[in-house]
Amino acid sequence: MLAGASGAELGELLAELDAVASSASAARVSVAVEAVRRGEVAGSGVHGWVREHAPSLRQGGAGPVSRVAIEVATAGSRSDDGKGPAEGSPLGIVWDAVREGRVEAGTGCLVLRESARLAPLLRPETVPTVTSALVDLVTAWGPTLMRRLRPRLLADHGHHGALDDLQQRLAGAARLSMPHVESADLTEYQLWMTPEQAATLEAAIGPLSAPQPNDETGEADLRPAGQRRVEALTQVCAVASGTESLEDAGSPATLHVTIPLSDMQASTGAGEILGSVATGTLLAPETLRRLACDAAVVLHGLGAAGEPLTLGRLERLFTRPQRRHLWLRDRGCTYPGCSAPAAWARAHHVRHWSDGGPTDVSNAALLCQRHHTTVHRRRLRAQVRRRPDEHGRYVVWDLTDGSYDRASDTAPPGGDAVPTPETAAPAVA
Ligand SMILES: [Zn+2]
Ligand SMILES: [Zn+2]
């Protein structure tokens, strides 16, 4: 019979079956109400009785059916005519919708809970209107949207200041959990924000978390949305904590990391974070080499015998005039096809600082956080030119993986790189 039906007939058939299923599940609740009302079953026994006689609800749904049955039967025994919940009460409105098959018992319970939550904030005469609106919303759009429109309903029907009160209460409940660090694994946070806080966060990370396919190199942006979002958030934090400033030496935003010097140079072992809630978190050596470009990190080296060594922060970091020079020279991230502005970029040591690369503008290239990670991860080398090439670039990247390791370490990066007048000759070993 199905094989002979046309496409249109299949649609009609599905609609008819759906109507039958809705009526059947409405009737199922009515039967349960009747059983409770007659005293066939009561209290905690209702759930088991429903599961016993409606085996399909054992997969889920017996709870809401028995909850609605008990509430409706109890309300009926209290009402004047003994028939059911008072007309116009939240329970009465929801019961009508369940009985008519417009909403499932489970959805009805969600509406009742939402209505009860809103009731103290509403002008009393608007409770029926709001409950009906909740039924309509949940029928048309589902529970998530119903709850999302809570502020709208409060603004329209709430007591004076109800929405303000709600948002104030929300502010008290909003929080960011402490980091939960599993050794060498991802750090987990839980974050609850007020609508205003969430809007601020989304505004800050929104444009930064969009996929960034590279038109020039043709690379697609394959990062999943979650990764793009967390990288955008990290970028916002890095800029907000002023990590490009030298003046923050003692600021709490500074990350202190300890690592044996030999490990740092050989790219082995791991660095360990000190003096923050993330203490003990291990960082891979390649990550450390990248962080060494960064002003917000203080590296505490350990010598061969484990004795602490100060790793020259001042020699490692580009000075304000140097950074200004780079801003003017590079304009923004120097990675091909990237349009991140200079304010978002950091100065990268083209020949890594941990390999003896000098902190000199002729050994520097501005990179946005994302491409800074890329060039360290893929070990890319750039040529820093004294004069711009035909595309106006002073920094020209070799985008083949491992180009850093293939570059001769005895010559300055890029054949024609020379010190700029404002800096001393780089002591490239
Ligand atoms: Zn770097
Ligand atoms: Zn970039």
Give a brief outline of the structure:
It contains 17 helices and 13 strands. The chain has 429 residues and is α+β, with helices and mostly antiparallel strands.
What does this structure look like?
The longest helix has 31 residues, at 7-37. This protein has four domains: 18-166, no CATH class; 174-240, no CATH class; 243-317, no CATH class; 318-429, no CATH class. The chain contains 17 helices and 13 strands. The termini are far apart. It is α+β, with helices and mostly antiparallel strands and 429 residues long. A hairpin with a 5-residue loop joins strand 8 (297-302) and strand 9 (308-310). Helix 2 (45-53) crosses helix 3, helix 3 (62-78) packs across helix 5 and helix 4 (90-99) packs antiparallel against helix 5 (105-118). One zinc ion binds at residues 333, 335, 338, 340, 367-368, 370-371. Belongs to the Rv1128c/1148c/1588c/1702c/1945/3466 family.
Write the layout of secondary structure elements.
Layout: H1 7-37, H2 45-53, H3 62-78, H4 90-99, H5 105-118, H6 127-141, H7 143-148, H8 150-157, H9 162-173, E1 175-176, E2 180-181, E3 187-188, E4 191-192, H10 195-205, H11 225-240, E5 255-260, H12 261-266, E6 271-274, E7 282-283, H13 285-291, E8 297-302, E9 308-310, H14 313-316, H15 320-330, E10 345-349, E11 364-368, H16 369-377, E12 381-384, E13 395-398, H17 403-406
Helix pairs in contact: 1-3, 2-3, 3-5, 4-5, 4-6, 5-6, 13-16
Bound molecules: zinc ion (2 copies).
Biased composition (Low complexity): 417-429
Domain HNH nuclease: 321-373
Family: Belongs to the Rv1128c/1148c/1588c/1702c/1945/3466 family.
